[in-house]
Amino acid sequence: MSGSTKQAAAAADRALASATSALLIRGLHKAFADVQAVDGIDLEVAPGECFGLLGPNGAGKTTTIEICEGLTTPDEGTVELLGLNWRSGASELRQRIGIQLQETQFPDKLTVEETLRLFRSFYRGGITVDDSIRLAQLEEKRHSRVGGLSGGQKQRLAMATALVGDPELLFLDEPTTGLDPQARRHLWDLVEGLKHEGRTIILTTHYMEEAEQLCDRVAIMDHGRVIALGTPKELIATVGGADIVEFAVNSADGFKQGSADAVAMRLKAIPGVQSHRLDKDLHQLSVSELHTAVPRIFESLEEQGLHLSEFRTHSASLEDVFVRLTGRNLRDE
Fold it and tell me: At the fourth CATH level, which superfamily is domain 3-233?
């Protein structure tokens, strides 16, 4: 049987697998001292889905993932993976899932090949060490010691160890942190390939373009709770406009916070402007027809005697969804 035929057969087997959810979370709670890290989460991920969990540091996403991975015990709630739970099915789950942590400490003295042979020995089945090295693009580092690898190369090694057991369910916790753009793009291609094989992927990331590119659905977390859930397209549609206009006015114009309401009222009266938000000194408008709204915004500012010091536009994104929901940017710590 050829390699492509084997992959097709494996994908068909996964498609015919149990109809139960690949991941089912109900009423999940976890506190550390007086900090409620996870506060009543309910989530369900379908087999073969790439599901993104987004939010700033401290939102609770990593704690949620660690509970799902069996690394942390919840205070309340239930978690099922592939129809199993960690209390009664831990041995089976370890054979069927793959995990890439935010930070993985490998023995510095082992080579890349030796590390992967060690991890491959933990599984009854899986892919070859050669295939895992190829997937992670570490061929030139096969005989290099782990201690001599760059941060990005160690990230790729962590991905290779997560894949060597040929997992049905794969957890990737900020997998592209520290990677250069080319390596990040390679990982995106790798994840797309894993999706096409029918694997279920749980992805956490700080990169919104990554979530939009890879995820079938995303959940946005803040303060231990899920505050939005849907496909990237559905969530972006909630912003109200296809584009975002951002601008600041020259402080020499004497613009004061007290006049913000009057400025906002006039801007929101412009056809195509869906909403207005003032973040410090930056005005943010959601607009549905950029080509007609922008000239009218310029006219409105000129009529009010205001002069631009900054001006930019961009397509509405998941970042804008997060700002709308929480009032702060995703990377705010």
Answer: P-loop containing nucleotide triphosphate hydrolases (3.40.50.300)
